[in-house]
């Protein structure tokens, strides 16, 4: 049997010996690498998804996944969350299991969806059984327009503050971050993971447990703006999503349908808003920063 680990033992990275090459010379060194393990999400005793994730904040991850994937409508529909972790052994890799007990109505709906998601750290819809199961028609969020008056300086402040709160990124250089920011741009919560959507799920779970009013801020991601990030934000009625890199066309479409303000290429003192607000005073063309 693999050695059981508590979630408190998890650091999110491993240390190993490497050979560092620089300026034509090589030297032995110790390096820290972001940990990525399979995490099984089990609802009422039945495994629903296996995601490749960093073994930090797994209770928040389970709750956030349940909410952002529409498995439950509210945090109170999750009655209990138990996390068990197993260390690597000669016979098996490290792994974790998140067991969630959810309301019977939610569980019945989950079984009806027949979704078997084979998770990957870079893709949020791999394993969906058919195109008909893709949810690409979000309802307009309850707080549409709530972020319209968030100033550019607030976005710039959040972008400046985020790197200082990315502890695992400083250790490994290989993870994404999802941050909850106040309307003034102050970075209030940060979750990290090898997968951008995992990081957002962890953040959503943490916000739900703390009953944060999502009208009072926005999410900043250290990644590109992909479809699943915007779709998850829409399910939680998050009025604004900002990312440091480019959006996809589907992300833009989903944001427009849901009434989410989408800001991308948030770097330095600039960003691009998709699509341009009707009342925008800027000209018809926007300068994009190099990718």
UniProtKB/TrEMBL annotation:
Catalytic residues, per the record, are 123 (cysteine persulfide intermediate)
Question: Would I find Transmembrane helix among this entry's keywords?
Answer: no
Q: Where in the cell is it found?
A: Cytoplasm
Q: Any idea which UniProt keywords this protein has?
A: Cytoplasm, Molybdenum cofactor biosynthesis
Q: Indicate the principal place this protein occupies in or around the cell.
A: cytoplasm
Purpose: Required for formate dehydrogenase (FDH) activity. Acts as a sulfur carrier protein that transfers sulfur from IscS to the molybdenum cofactor prior to its insertion into FDH.
Q: What family does the entry list?
A: Belongs to the FdhD family.
From the Swiss-Prot or TrEMBL record, give the protein name: Sulfur carrier protein FdhD
Task: Record the organism.
Answer: Cupriavidus malaysiensis
The gene for this chain is: fdhD
